[in-house]
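Handoff note, outgoing to incoming analyst
You'll be picking up this chain. Sequence as last confirmed:
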Amino acid sequence: MPQATFRFYEELNDFLPPERRRRAFEHRFDGTPSVKDQIEALGVPHTEVDLIVVDGEPAGFDRLLRGGERVAVYPMFETLDIGPIARLRPAPLREPRFVLDVHLRTLARRLRMLGFDAAWPGDVPDETLAALSVDEGRILLTRDRGLLKRRDVLRGYCPRSPDPERQVREVVRRFDLGRLARPFTRCIACNAELAPARAEEIAGAVPADILRRHARFARCRACGRVYWPGTHFERMSALVAELVGDR
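Most recent structure output, in case you need it:
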């Protein structure tokens, strides 16, 4: 059987068994498969890959392997332009939007808290999530690696941690979201944008003591939910400050 030498870099190693991480290893295959097929056969979704180098030259996903090649695979360079010739994915989104699977509801709410458009359609088929990602130009967030390997999905990321607080830190770091965040401008419940509201406009929608103690309110343009800077806001502000700093 023909074989090629593979080496995966940085966080792509998260998808490999321990004995193959951060080292070159031999991989056997049948026929003349594409390099994309073999990368995914080794467990790495193509949405996580931004650069492939075969025998010292940049290669596309459709490069065929015949045996004897040395293949280096690099992760997404979301904050670094590596040039139009080498880049395998579309250019980084200037205003990133997301769609998340049913298991990442809390992460969706955290991203909305930071001001990002984070669609969470609930328990829908994989085909629906993939279509939303493609049709609306959204980055697909899921821990289902099989979903990220779908051919039609162009942008995606697999949060490594099962913990929502760690997940949001991962996503902010991976997509350099700190510079784009607009905290507390989006409804965490329905994802629509918020608008400033006067006390007299929301009378009856919040308890009377809240109206007396607060002067600043915001209301969701879609669902009508009302927000004000209470104790929960203070806790959320601490998390926002940690994630995006002075921005």
